[in-house]
Amino acid sequence: MASHSRTASKPESSLSTPPPEASASNGGPSDFNIHETYTSLLHAQPSLTKPLAAISALISLLSHPAHTPSTISETLSLLSAHSETLTSSVRNPIAVKAGTDLWGRYVVGVLQAPSKEPKGKGEDFSAVLTRVIDNGKVFVERAKEARQIIARTAKGFIQDGVTVLTAGKSRCVHAALLAAAEKGLQFRVIYVYDSPLPRTEDGMVRESRRKSIPVAVIAPSAVAYSLSAIDLVMVGAEGVLENGGIVAGLGTYQMAILARSKGKPVHVLAESHKFVGVFPMGQEDLGVRQRVLDFDGEERRDEGDEKKEEEEAVDYTPPELITSLVTEIGVLTPSAVSEELIKIWY
Q: How far, in Å, CA of 276 to CA of 280, rounded?
């Protein structure tokens, strides 16, 4: 297997504040804040995935009039410095890394490709850079369509009379459920939410019920109790890893374990731009800064920050617990992910 970049293990308890922007000396002008650009994109476009937001932020960097690079070396240095800054500025770098790695490989491929023009007649660098930026914007717009393509494929797993268990507020899963309902299929959905249970006020639950989909909302502690009522599990993912495992909302791993124990299939719905060359050895090897196990009971933290951290917590589900990965490029087995990464990267 070809070598891919891997995320180094970091201490789980490390919750340092985001580092300052890279300085101009290492390719990161202080007046372009990559982290603020990234978060602004996510707030302005709630349906945008994190990898696409990371790519869009790097496109904005290359488009910045005050810092337009003039050589291949400057371009790669600029992207490398800001990609590192962005991934280190978030608690969970998996999704961001998927985007920065994908964009970085594309830019390297374009800039280092041999020119087809006769010697001395090639494009000037500014024209090449403009082409890179324009193609990047086109890619982001096309990638946004992946969710609906996945929904059309995934609805084939939903049959009349089944009950689907899901969690994590996945937009791909929600789109698939709505697509199945629009097809006229009669099925039920069990949503797993942390307490307090939203029941009616959550947007996905409310919209599902408007589409006449019977919905039950349960706490994570009721998953095992509900297994006899379900036929399949559908979840989304923040990242699809090199070994075919996934990083998703905390509780996905235990849900997959329980489903496997009862022979229930687990289908993961995720866009291919979430594929990332990371190969963890276990839960502690994700490089995610989060306090799932906090033995310092006397330490006081801001209540708002603590709630946000809990909502963003993730875990790793290994490939042996996953039945299939439903993507816009087809339905894959977990073992096929490394092959797709090779195609993307090489």
A: 11
Query: Does residue 145 sit in helix, strand or coil?
Result: coil
Please tell me whether residue 2 adopts helix, strand or coil conformation. coil
Q: What one-character-per-residue DSSP string does 157-200 give?
A: G--TT-EEEEES--HHHHHHHHHHHHTT---EEEEE-PSSP-TT
Which residue bears the tokens 């961001």?
96
Q: Please give the sequence-ordered ranges of beta strands (E in DSSP) within the chain, or none if there are none.
A: 163-167, 188-192, 215-218, 232-235, 239-241, 246-249, 266-269, 275-276, 314-317, 324-327, 330-332
Q: Is 168 left (phi over 0), alpha (psi -120 to 50) or beta?
A: left
Q: Which residue has the tokens 């307090």?
A: 196
- pLDDT tens digits, 280-318: 878 887 777 777 777 776 555 555 455 455 567 889 999
Task: Report in angstroms the alpha-carbon separations of 233 from 102, 313, 315.
Answer: 29, 20, 17
Instruction: Report the candidate in 281, 174, 161 with the shortest Cα–Cα distance to residue 229.
Output: 161
Instruction: Please give the single-letter amino acid code of residue 126.
Output: S
Least Cα distance to 105 among 273, 327, 288 occurs for: 273
- The identity of residue 144, as a single letter, is K
CA–CA separation, 205 and 189 (whole Å): 9
Contacts of 23 (CB under 8 A, 6+ apart): 30
Residue tagged 């069990």 (tokens): 190
pLDDT digits (tens, 9 = 90+) for 118-135: 444 456 888 889 999 999
- pTM beyond 0.85: the answer is no
String of DSSP letters for 299-341: ----HHHHHHHHHH-EEEE-GGG--EEEETTEEE-GGGHHHHH
HSE of 86 in the Cβ direction (CA atoms, 13 Å)?
32
d(CA 86, CA 91) in angstroms, rounded, equals 10
